[in-house]
Every structure is written in structure tokens, then in C-alpha cells.
């Protein structure tokens, strides 16, 4: 049985970077609250979240932003770059709420490369809900 080879990652204008899919388990918000110090009950208390009109506990926005960063640094590493140290800047707009136990998909496309810096546009979605839009990452690629 042969495997389909993974295409090489290239930081060239118009290139799509590998997608990142991650399904946060039911305890992801509790672990992230402990790591970040953000114990807002909308993230850790199912009953409270529902009382204030949410579908249940919601993911921390910065957890989702971290997944956008992770997608960029994993692509950099796959391209033979330094991984996390290649990420120079990251900006996102939060536009929706994510929930635990549903897949999050991060998609990224190289917009431009100039003077050894790639500008990448990224989004994060959960089903049809766009959690992050207009994400922009800058990575040192040369």
C-alpha cells in the first residue's frame, strides 16, 4: 500500500498552506482557563453560559488565536524554517464563538512575499461559523 506524498510547503504568493484541524475536547476551556488565568464563567460553567444565552461553554478567543498561530508555525517548520521563531506578527478579528467538541479548521493562504517576509491571510471556522476572519500573519521566510 502506498501513501500519497505530502506536497512541499512553499511560501509563495497564492500558495495555500496546510490546513490545521483540531477538535477541542470538553475540558479544553478549563485547561486554557488555568493556563491563561481567564476564569470567566462563560468558558468554564455550562449552566452559567446557558443562562446568559450561549449554547454552552465557549472557547476562549485567545485559544482560537493560538490555533491560527500554530497553523502558521507548523507550515513554517514543514517548509524547513525555524517554526515558532519564524512568526513575526499575528493579527486576527474575532467574529464568532467556538464551542468545545466540534472541529476547528484553520485555513491560510500566502498573500505576498517581500524582503524575506511572507504575509499570510488566515481564517478559523467551526462548521459554517467563522470564528476568526481577516487573520494576518507575517513570517520570516528568507
TrEMBL record:
Gene3D superfamilies: Hotdog Thioesterase. InterPro entries: Fatty_acid_synthase, HotDog_dom_sf, MaoC-like_dom. GO terms for cellular component: fatty acid synthase complex. It comes from the Bacteria. Signal peptide: none annotated. It holds the Pfam family MaoC_dehydratas. GO terms for biological process: fatty acid biosynthetic process. Residues 18-128 form the MaoC-like domain. GO terms for molecular function: fatty acid synthase activity. Belongs to the enoyl-CoA hydratase/isomerase family. This is MaoC-like domain-containing protein. It comes from Patulibacter medicamentivorans. The lineage of its organism: Bacteria, Bacillati, Actinomycetota, Thermoleophilia, Solirubrobacterales.
Amino acid at each position: 500500500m502506498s501513501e500519497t506524498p505530502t506536497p512541499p510547503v512553499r511560501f509563495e504568493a497564492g500558495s495555500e498552506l496546510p490546513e490545521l484541524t483540531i477538535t477541542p475536547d470538553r475540558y479544553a476551556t478549563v485547561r486554557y482557563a488555568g493556563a491563561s488565568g481567564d476564569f470567566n464563567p462563560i468558558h468554564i460553567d455550562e449552566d452559567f453560559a446557558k443562562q446568559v444565552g450561549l449554547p454552552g461553554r465557549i472557547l476562549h478567543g485567545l485559544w482560537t488565536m493560538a490555533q491560527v498561530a500554530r497553523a502558521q508555525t507548523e507550515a513554517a517548520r514543514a517548509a524547513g524554517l525555524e517554526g515558532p521563531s519564524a512568526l513575526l506578527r499575528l493579527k486576527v478579528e474575532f467574529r464568532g464563538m467556538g464551542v468545545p467538541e466540534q472541529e476547528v479548521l484553520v485555513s491560510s493562504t500566502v498573500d505576498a512575499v517581500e524582503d524575506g517576509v511572507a504575509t499570510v491571510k488566515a481564517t478559523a471556522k467551526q462548521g459554517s461559523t467563522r470564528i476568526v476572519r481577516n487573520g494576518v500573519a507575517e513570517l520570516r521566510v528568507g
